[in-house]
UniProtKB/TrEMBL annotation:
Residues 31-203 form the Isochorismatase-like domain. The keyword Lyase applies. The keyword Nucleotide-binding does not apply. PANTHER family: ENTEROBACTIN SYNTHASE COMPONENT B (PTHR43540:SF3), PEROXYUREIDOACRYLATE/UREIDOACRYLATE AMIDOHYDROLASE-RELATED (PTHR43540). Pfam families: Isochorismatase. Keywords: Hydrolase, Lyase. This is Bifunctional isochorismate lyase / aryl carrier protein. One of its GO terms (molecular function) is isochorismatase activity. It comes from the Bacteria.
Length: 237
């Protein structure tokens, strides 16, 4: 069954960010960007010309561009099409058979992955369940995760919670995610801020990345983050 149409709603922004319980600061040497489930199957439910998606999509693009400039790893979750019933499991009881192979599985054109981006095949709400996401983050020396995409109160919130339970600090971006409704969106922000992460906004994420970016780093740093950090330290002496 297709995802039912989602009515437009006002995207939460800075005034809606709950008070933080942690004083975490985003660090360009420690973070990765998660672009969660931005596949056409899920995005077709929205009017792309209206909020929340019109603004959320532009904000994800802005964060992705900032990460590219700073050589921060960009990770996509992508559910496969035509999932075998043994893989789909009881998810089918809630959502039917899910995506079909082809257009459904494609990421929206505005965020199409490039060769250097990492694609994780995803099977459940959380990006960490039945995937190697935690191992990938460890490989790149990353223990912070910027969470963007859809849907805020499902995969995004639960990925943030799973990140926390894996000692990865999640930064859930309030205005770079979209949900079924404003109430559910706000609920996800509130839960994350109270229990497992820091809620932030796009402007602050981009500013933190730009403030911490190392101009001397190239994309080669992604393949050897330890050597890159030593190089930065040496240049600072």
């Amino acid at each position: 069954m297709a995802i039912p149409g989602i009515a437009p709603y006002s995207l939460p922004g800075r005034p809606d960010v709950p008070e933080a319980r942690v004083d975490w600061a985003l660090d360009t040497d420690r973070c990765a960007l998660l672009i969660h489930d931005m596949q056409k199957y899920f995005i077709d439910a929205y009017d792309k010309t209206a909020e929340p998606l019109s603004t959320a999509l532009a904000n994800i693009q802005a964060i992705r561009a900032a990460c590219a400039r700073a050589s921060i790893p960009v990770i996509y979750t992508m559910q496969p099409g035509d999932q075998h019933p043994s893989r789909r499991g009881i998810l089918a009881d809630f959502w039917g058979v899910g995506l079909t192979t082809g257009r459904d599985t494609e990421v929206v054109e505005e965020l199409a992955p490039i060769e250097s981006d990492i694609q994780v095949t995803k099977w459940r709400y959380s990006a960490f369940q039945r995937t190697d996401l935690r191992q990938l983050l460890g490989h790149f020396g990353r223990d912070q995760l910027i969470v963007t995409g859809v849907y805020t109160h499902m995969g995004c919130m639960l990925s943030a919670a799973d990140a926390f339970m894996n000692d990865v600090a999640p930064f859930l971006v309030a205005d770079a995610t979209a949900d079924f409704s404003r109430d559910e969106h706000l609920m996800a922000l509130d839960y994350t801020a109270k229990r497992c992460g820091k809620v932030t906004v796009t402007d602050d994420v981009v500013a933190a990345i730009e403030a911490g970016a190392h101009p001397a780093l190239s994309n080669a740093a992604l393949s050897n983050p330890v050597a890159a950090s030593l190089d930065v330290a040496a240049k600072g002496r």
